[in-house]
Fold this protein.
Amino acid sequence: MTALDIAREVRSGERRARDVVEEHLARISEREPELHCFNLVLADEARAAADEIDRTVAAGRDPGPLAGVPVALKDNLCTRGVPTTCSSRILENWSPPYDATAIRRLAEAGAVVMGKTNLDEFAMGSSTENSAFGPTRNPHDPSRVPGGSSGGSAAAVAAGFAALALGSDTGGSIRQPAALCGVVGAKPTYGTVSRYGLVAFASSLDQIGPLGSTVADAAALLEVVAGHDPADSTSIPGPAPSLGVVLDDGVEGLRVGVLRELTEGAAPDVAARVEEAGRALEARGAKVEEASVPAATYGLSAYYLIAPAEASSNLARYDGVRYGLRVDGPDVGAMFTATRTAGFGPEVKRRIMLGTYALSAGYYDAYYGQAQRARTLIIRGFEAAYQTHDLLLAPTTPTTAFPLGAKTDDPLAMYLSDVCTIPSNLAGHPAISVPYGTGADGLPIGVQVLAPALGEPVMFRAATALERSLGPSGRERGAP
Amino acid sequence: MAGRISRDDVSHVATLARLRLDDDELDRFTDQLASVLEHAADVASLDTSGVPPTAHPLPLANVLRDDLPVAGLDRDEVLAQAPAAEDRRFRVPRILGEAP
Amino acid sequence: MSATASATDWETVVGLEVHCELATATKLFCGCRNAFGDEPNTNVCPVCLGLPGSLPVLNRGAVELAMRIGAALHSQVRRSSFHRKNYFYPDMPKDYQVSQYDEPINVGGWLDLPDGTRVGVTRAHLEEDTGKTTHVGSSGRIHGADHALVDYNRAGVPLVEIVSEPDLRSAGDAQAYVNELRALLVAIGASDARMEEGSLRIDANISLRPTGTTTFGTRAEIKNLNSVRSLKRALEHEAARQAGLLEAGERIVQETRHWDEAAGRTSSMRSKEEAFDYRYFPEPDLVPVAPDDEWQAAVVGALAVLPAARRAQLAAKAGVAPADVALVVERGLDHLVEAAIDAGADPRLALARAANEVASDLAAGLTLDPGAFTAVLAMEAEGRLTATQAKQVLAELLAHGGDPSEIAAARGFEALAGDTLALAVDAAVAAHPDEWGRLAGGEQKLVGFFVGKVMASTAGKADGRAVTALLRERLGSGA
C-alpha cells in the first residue's frame, strides 16, 4: 500500500489511522531488532497521533493531505521535546525546544511520526556505519549496508516500517541509500525545503528531501514540506512546486542526456540498468543521447574540500557549554577539548580536521578558495548541458550495496560512492533516484534523473515514466 | 597546492578544532588526510583564473526581517538543557585568557 | 605629542576601533529583544543560542542604522556580505561570530573634530555581539577565578565596528575623536553609545615613529579601555613605554596589551601574530545585502531631519554655535526661527524669543504664523515696543492669534514714529524701482501700490494718508 493509498483511505474513513499504525508497529517489532533503522521508535506517540486523526475524520474536519501516513524522520531533524541525536554521543541526550519547519508542516498535513531514524554521525558518511549507536542493515540483505547517511530512513521505507521518510542530502545522502535499498529518494533544488531545524552539516549543500516506495509518494511528501520559509534566509521565495498534477504528463519530446562522466566509473550491471532506463524513456517518446559535463569529474574533490570546511565551522558549537555532552576539565579550554574528543566519532573528527586545514591561514586560497571556483566551473558545465537537454540520466551510485565493514578502513574508497550524486549538490540542482531493477547479486539498483534548478516538475515526470516502464512486477522487484 | 600534509599540520589543526589525538590517531589521520588531499589535487590543477568562487548556489539578495520582537524561549527550558547552571546562567570551568 | 627629554622626537600614531551597539528593538539575526539589564537568559531563542538547526535572518532596522552611520561619516554604502570569524570562547554560542570581512557595508569616510582636524574612517561594518561572562571566585577578576557564568542576552545584539585611519596624533586627539563620534551616534539615533553600559567599546592601536618620517612603526593594540579617561591615560602610558623601548634600541613587539586601570599600565596579552587563526569564509546561511538607491536616499533624507543636521543648519543661518540653538531645535521651533531670519529678523532676538516666550506655549508655538512672529520681532528691534511689551504681544498671539499691530494698538503700545515711517517709504521705493519709475512717469494708481507695500512692511501700523504725503514729497523732489 502506498502512502497516497493510505491517506485516501484514512481521509475517507474507510480505514482507521490507528490500524495503519498498528500494522506498521507490528512490522517494526518483527524486524527492527535485526535492522536497527531507528534510534528511537515513538510507538505511544504514534498511536496517540493516529487516534487524533481518526477523531478529526469522524468529526468531519479535514485531517490533512497525508492523514494517517506513517512517516520516519532522520534523527538530524529537530523534533520538539523528542531526542535529536544526529547519531552522535555529543547529542545523545539532547531534545530540541523547537520543531524544524519541515516537521511542523508534516504534522499539519496529518502524517504520523513512527520514530527517528539512524544516520551516519552528523550526516557524514555513505553507509550509516559511522553512527555512534551501531549501523543499520539493508533489508534486502542484512549483511550489507543500507547506504548513508540517511540509511535508517531508506531502510525503514524498504522494510515497510513507514510509508514515507524524510532524509537529508548533502553529497547524495538521500539518493544513494534510496538506490541501495530499492526505494525512491529525491534531493530538491537547493532552497526548496527550509533548512530551519535541520542540524547543519554543510550549509551551502544540505537539503531535506523525501523517500518513499513510489515516485508519486515522494512527490506528495515534497509538496507538503517545500515552499518559502522566512526563518531560512536561503529559502527560495515562492510556494512549493506543484508535482502531483504533472506526474502523468509523460516524456514525449524531452531531450535526455546520459551523463558520460558519471556513467564511466559504474559497475557493469549498474551501467546496464542506466542504458535500459535510457531506452525505456526513448520508447516513451524522449530523445536520448550521450551528454558530457567534463567539469563534473572535479566534483568529488571540490566537495571534499567545501563540505568539511563548512562542517568544521558548523560543528564548532558542540563545546559542552549549553547542551549535550560535557566532559569536565580544569578550565574551559580543557573542557572543550575533552568534550569534543569524547563526543565525536573518527569520521566526524577526520572531516573537521580536513575542513579546518582547508580554511586555515595560508591554505585558504589553494584549497577552499580553489574548490569554490571549481564549483563555479561545474555549475557552468551543467548550465551548458541544459542548453541542449531537459534532463540528464546517470547511475545513482557506482555499485550495489557493499558488505558492512568493506570500506570502513579506507575513507577515500567510501567517499568514492558519492561520485554520481555530489555534482547536483554542488550545483544546487534537483536529482532523484528511482529503483530500476537489480544487479547480478540480486540487490537493488537505482537510476538517477538530474534536472536544472527548479526543474522538479519535469524531473518527477521522467521518474514516473521510468517507474511505469518497469511494470507492476518490476516495482515489486525492488521490495525485499 | 601545498606540500603533503604533515603530522605537525594535523596536530595543529586538531588543536584549532579543540580535538586531542593520541599518537596512533595522529599517524592514522595524517595518512588518511594526506590521501584525501592528494586525490583533491586535481582541483589544484584546474585553471580558474577569472572564475569567481560560488558562495551561494542561489542568486538571492536582500533577505531581511522587520525589527519587531518575537517571543523567544522560556529560560527554564533553556537552562534545563545546560550541563551546568548557576544563578540563572550557564556555568563553565574557569576561563584562562581573554577573548580576542 | 612627543616623548620629552629623548634623543629622537617621536610622533604618536593612533588608530581606533570603536564598537557601538545599535539601538534596534531586536537582535541582528533574530527577534529577541535588544535590551540592557534584563534578567539573565530571558532574551534568547534557538538562533541567538546557536542551537543545532537554527539559522540567522538579517534585521532590516540594523541595516538601516548601519547605513545611517555610514551616511553620517560620509562613507560609501556598498553591496555587502557576511563572513564567519571562527574561534572558541564560552560567550560565543556558535563558536564563530558572524561579521563582515572583505565586503563591509560602509567603506571610507571621515569625521571632523571640533578643532578642524579631519580623521579618516576606513570602514564601518555590521557584526553580532557575544554573550556576557562573569568570573566567579576569589577576586571576581579573570585571574584567580574558580568558574564562570554566561548570560546570552547580549549574544546576537547588532554592533557596528567603526575603524579609523591611523590619523590621530595624540591621546587628546583620540579623546576628541571618541567624544565627537559618540555625540554623532547619539544625535543620529544609531546608538546610545554609553561606555559604562558597554554600548560603546574602544580598542586602540598605537605606534611611534620619528617625527617627519612616513613609515609606520610597529603597533600595539590596547584593550580593556572602559572610559574615555582610560583611553587617554592608556595611550599616554603606552606612548611613553614604546618611546622608552625605542630609545634603548629595542624593537616593539606587535601584540595585544591589556590596560590595567588600577595599576596604570599596559601588559602583554598575546602576540597578535600567533594567537588566533580565524579561518574567515563566506557565511553560507546569509545572502548579500545590496541597499538600492531609493533606500540609500531615504537614509540620507532621514539624516537631514535629525537634530544634529537641524542644529547645524539653524546655527549657520543665525551665525551662532550649534550648542546655542540646541533648545530651539529640541522644541521643534527651528523652522519658525529660520523663517523669521529669512524675513530679516535679528537672529539672536529671534532665538531668544523662540526659546523663551514661544516655547512656553509650545502647542500654539508650533502653529504660530511666521509672519506675525517676524512682525513682533521687527517692532521690538526698531524700538517701537519695549521687551516687556513684545513679550505681552507674543503671549496674546499665542493664546488668541490676531494681528501684532492691532494687539499693540489695542494695548496702547507705541505707534509708528515719523522717522520710522519715512524709512519705510524710502525702503519701499528702493525695493521697487520699476514701479517708482512708472509712478514718477505719471501712473497715479501706483500710489496705492506703494501705500500697500509700506503698510505691509509696518505691519499695518502706518497711516495711509501720511504715507501718501511722503510719497508726493519724494515725487516732488524728484528723488
About this structure: The interface with chain C takes residues 16, 18, 53, 55-56, 58, 60-73, 75, 78-79, 86-95, 97-100 of chain B (CB under 8 Å). The beta strands of chain B are 64-65, 85-86, 89-93. The radius of gyration of chain B is 22 Å. The first helix of chain B runs from residue 7 to 16.
